């Protein structure tokens, strides 16, 4: 196997192979256009790709998407590590990902100050043991259950209660805090970033929808702007609140209430590194989380120090790492 690194515009014919590999490994149906858009973040317009090739065949790949983040009073570039994939017949070398990642680090030099990822459980152990990444912290789930039986079939008899209770929550007074959550480490949410994250390659932003499709819903709650999207997950209609800016517990309650009144769904979910105290959503106990979400990171340059390895310094939600 030959290991190398390339920028997105340099992929050439390998881009089609990368898309084919992505769709095989993740059982998706992405196109060259959608992945090119995903790998073209502002302000660079490109990402770094680690490649593993068997002759002319692309047998493995991983991507680092560089994004601007605030670092206390300054700005830095953080690299979001995504789409780590190796063909089934090329998984004999357990160091394959490390070799691709090393190729990317050598290619990028000091352009990225910190790498971060939210891997699945198997990859989490690999990142920790072989790549020597560090835990930042676990992300929190907040949920407004509307039809709890859709999530847990044995609790279907409680559906009338959760449907009524969630609707009553929307009518109750706002008692949660309006204090703006500010952390020294968070994405720089510019117009360019919003166009990249919620724009054409994720389909256009709509003002309102109640159907499961590829569109985001954008709205305002007081001084906060929010984005959400509906998904069908195992016959459960889940509405994910992807971003709220600026974030307050009151804004989260307001957004959840608006979604409950306007959108047919079984659950409303928000995920963040910040421990909030909303009054209309429940913070899910860890043992009931559908999947543990570990934020992990590795510092690269001396422009960022180990305070980046403490979740208390981050404001990090689905808009930072997920494609929802």
Kindly list the characteristics that best describe this protein.
324 residues, alpha+beta, Aminopeptidase, 2 domains, nine-stranded mixed β-sheet, seven-stranded mixed β-sheet, 9 helices, 16 strands, 26% helix, globular
CATH class of the largest domain: Alpha Beta
Backbone CA Rg: 20 Å
CATH topology (fold) name of the largest domain: Aminopeptidase
Whole-number average pLDDT? 90
Give unreliable regions as ranges: 201-209
Total of DSSP H or I helical runs spanning 4+ residues: 9
> What is the straight-line distance between the termini?
34 Å
State the domain count.
2
Quick one: overall form? globular
Order of helices and strands: EHHEEEHEHEEHHEHEEEEHEEEEH
Fraction of residues in helices? 25-40%
Main sheet attributes: strand count, strand direction, barrel closure: 9 strands, mixed
Secondary-structure arrangement, i.e. CATH architecture of the largest domain: 3-Layer(aba) Sandwich
Strand content: 25-35%
CATH superfamily of the largest domain: Gcn5-related N-acetyltransferase (GNAT)
Class based on secondary structure composition and strand pairing: alpha+beta
Q: How would the blueprint of this fold be written?
A:
Blueprint: E1 2-7, H1 14-26, H2 32-38, E2 48-54, E3 57-71, E4 74-86, H3 96-108, E5 114-117, H4 121-129, E6 134-138, E7 140-145, H5 148-151, H6 159-171, E8 185-187, H7 191-198, E9 205-206, E10 216-221, E11 224-233, E12 236-245, H8 249-262, E13 267-272, E14 282-283, E15 294-299, E16 314-315, H9 318-321
Parallel strand pairs: 4-5, 8-16, 9-10, 12-13
Antiparallel strand pairs: 1-2, 2-3, 3-4, 3-8, 5-15, 6-15, 7-13, 7-14, 10-11, 11-12
Helix pairs in contact: 6-8
């Amino acid at each position: 196997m030959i290991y190398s690194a390339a920028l997105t515009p340099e992929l050439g014919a390998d881009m089609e192979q990368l898309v084919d590999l992505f769709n095989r490994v993740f059982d998706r149906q992405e196109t060259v256009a959608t992945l090119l858009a995903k790998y073209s973040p502002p302000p660079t317009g490109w990402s770094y790709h680690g490649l593993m090739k068997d002759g002319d065949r692309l047998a493995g790949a991983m991507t680092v998407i560089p994004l601007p983040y605030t670092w206390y009073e300054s700005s830095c570039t953080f690299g979001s590590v995504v789409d780590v994939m190796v063909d089934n017949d090329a998984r004999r070398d357990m160091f394959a990902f490390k070799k691709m990642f090393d190729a990317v680090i050598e290619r990028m030099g000091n352009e990225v100050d910190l790498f971060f990822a939210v891997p699945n459980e198997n990859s989490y152990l690999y990142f920790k043991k072989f790549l020597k990444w560090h835990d930042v912290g676990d992300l929190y789930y907040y949920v407004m259950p509307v039809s709890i039986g859709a999530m847990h079939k044995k609790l279907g008899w409680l559906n009338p209660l959760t449907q009524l209770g969630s609707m009553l929550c929307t009518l109750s007074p706002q008692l949660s805090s309006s204090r703006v959550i500010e952390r020294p480490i968070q994405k720089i949410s510019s117009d360019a970033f919003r166009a990249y994250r919620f724009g054409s390659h994720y389909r256009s932003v709509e003002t309102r929808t109640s159907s499961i499709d590829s569109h985001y819903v954008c709205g305002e709650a007081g001084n906060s702007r929010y984005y959400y999207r509906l998904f069908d997950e195992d016959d459960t209609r889940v509405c994910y609140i992807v971003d709220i800016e600026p974030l307050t517990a009151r804004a989260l309650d307001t957004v959840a209430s608006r979604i409950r009144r306007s959108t047919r769904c079984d659950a409303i979910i928000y995920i963040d590194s910040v421990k909030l105290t909303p009054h209309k959503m429940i913070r899910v106990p860890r043992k009931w989380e559908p999947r543990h979400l570990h934020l992990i990171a590795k510092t690269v340059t001396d422009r960022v120090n180990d305070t980046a390895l403490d979740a208390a310094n981050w404001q990090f939600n689905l808009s930072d790492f997920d494609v929802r």
